[in-house]
Design goal:
It is found in: Endomembrane system. The chain is of the alpha/beta class and 234 residues long. It is 34% helix and 20% strand. The longest helix has 18 residues, at 188-205. The model is unreliable at 1-29, 208-215 and 228-234 (pLDDT under 50). The protein contains eight helices and seven strands. It has a seven-stranded mixed beta sheet with strand order 1-3-4-2-5-6-7, sandwiched between helices. The structure holds guanosine-5'-triphosphate and magnesium ion. Guanosine-5'-triphosphate is lined by residues 45-51, 65, 67-68, 93-95, 151-152, 154-155, 181-183.
């Protein structure tokens, strides 16, 4: 299921049921040419970060996952509107003792952040502002897209976090909210859609590759920065 994004932040939910979106894990794309985007998945232990990323990259529900130590890397190559892009997904550890030596690495040069809570655990939802704060403390810029995901929607009669409360929190940060289940096979496409939504957003940002700039281009950029620095007094 997709939660309508009321934040008006330019995110559209993308569903991947048509052929214009290629899901690259089973195709032979020219991955060498791909732009690579680093996405980190953050949240309390046991909310299902490993299962969600495994569902997206591996296509199935991972039975009996172990607690993540440090970070696990997963990758998926996508064809979006004729361009090959690679999502490098950092599945981080929720447990403090397994993450503390890694935190700096998580946030370095990140392109997008996914905050995950468990809809059956109010505590995991209440932790979200702390995760957001940690992210800001590590100088993740405001232009880096962030989304919130409530996982384990299949456990309907154990739900502790109402959609309305989650939407309210997401709105307060202007983040899009998604609720889903890594376990429910019927949600497979929705899990894909969440990552694809982010991928489209990242694709449109077109991060600049400095080595592609000519010398005059670099000079122009530098002058522009100098001008901005003189004008801006804040
Ligand atoms: N019912 C249900 N259980 C899930 C779902 N996703 C994950 N789980 C279960 O939740 C538990 C924790 O899942 P993980 O993916 O290991 O959680 P994590 O957030 O990676 O935990 P850490 O690595 O410790 O940070 C496991 O027992 C999973 O089987 C889901 O969508 N529905
Ligand atoms: Mg994990």
């Amino acid at each position: 299921m997709a939660i309508e994004n009321k934040a008006g932040d330019g995110f559209d939910t993308v569903f991947c049921q048509n052929d214009s979106v290629g899901l690259g894990s089973h195709h032979d794309y020219d991955a060498a040419q791909a732009r690579i985007f680093k996405i980190i998945v953050i949240g309390d232990s046991n909310v299902g970060k490993t299962c969600l990323t495994y569902r997206f990259c591996g296509g199935t529900f991972l039975k009996n996952p172990e607690a993540t130590i440090g970070v696990d890397f997963r990758e998926r190559t996508l064809q979006l509107d004729g361009e090959t892009i690679k999502l490098q997904i950092w599945d981080t550890a929720g447990q403090e003792r397994f993450r503390k030596s890694m935190v700096e690495h998580y946030y370095r040069s990140v392109h997008a952040v996914i905050f995950v809570y468990d809809v059956t655990s109010l505590i995991s939802f209440e932790s979200i502002p702390e995760w957001i704060e940690e992210c800001s403390r590590h100088s993740v810029g405001p232009m880096v897209p962030r989304i919130m995901v409530g996982n384990k929607c299949d456990l309907r009669d154990r739900r502790e976090v109402p959609t309305s409360a989650a939407q309210c929190l997401a709105d307060s940060y202007s983040f899009p909210l998604f609720e889903t289940s890594a376990k429910d096979p019927a949600e497979k496409e929705h899990v894909d859609a969440i990552f694809l939504t982010l991928a489209y957003r990242l694709k449109s940002h077109k991060p600049m590759r400095l080595k592609q700039l000519s010398e005059s281009g670099v000079r122009q950029l530098w002058n522009q920065r100098e001008e901005e620095a003189t004008i801006c007094q804040c």
